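mind reviewing both lines:
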Amino acid sequence: MIKFVGIPQLSYDALKVSDKTDDTFGIINEMKVSQYVLSFFVPIRDSLKSLELQEKAKSAFIYAQVRSYYTLLLMKGYDQKEIFEMLCKWFMTNTGIIERDKAEVLVSYFIQNCEVFSEC
């Protein structure tokens, strides 16, 4: 396996949000993301599967886009709170979402799904 310095490697162990975040993320963000994951992870995952079956989207492509943008932000030296903020703005720009909390739900999904903040 090729290892890239400074870029987290993937694993398939389920981790809690608190295991993925550091002190820069903040307790309020951690609590919010944990609740979003509990409430919305399964429905979002199921929606992505449904889009895949309807051939309206390829979830692997979506995951790769999120992971690529996260990696870019990481390489630029942003901390986790800044990355969370920038990913929310990115989702709002690229999906047409207007409400900030909906963007936070999507970022939370990708945190739990290991595209963001994770060495899983």
User: Anything to note?
Assistant: Residues 3 and 9 are 7 Å apart (CA to CA). Residues 23-112 form one domain. The chain is about 65% helix and 0% strand. The helical segments are 17-20, 27-53, 59-75, 80-95, 100-112.
